[in-house]
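Researcher: Structure for this, please.
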Amino acid sequence: QVQLVESGGGLVQPGGSLRLSCAASGFTLDYYAMGWFRQAPGKEREGVACISSSGDSTYYADSVKGRFTISRDNAKNTVYLQMNSLKPEDTAVYLCVRRSGYRCYVSNDYWGQGTQVTVSS
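Model: Predicted structure, token format:
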């Protein structure tokens, strides 16, 4: 069955960096766009970034543009989120999602369990 397992979260100081990974299994990653969402306490779930199946298109929320980079390695069945210049407001559970097709404009169909990112001094 489809599984998405996130890793790489943790506690980091403001201005620091983290790289999240999403290990995908149970399907051929090459055929699907992938994304990252985040959920902070008391806030609505927010779409952070998305990458098309081939990696030729990427999209970012305005709040992370210029600081976060989404990438993928289809040979390793893994999607990454490099997060730099982290701010306290980036604190959230980060969830990996599979889109239902090649491009980012389609709906999400599978979600991972999430990994906690805490930005604090």
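Researcher: Any notable elements?
Model: The radius of gyration is 13 Å. The longest strand covers residues 18-25.
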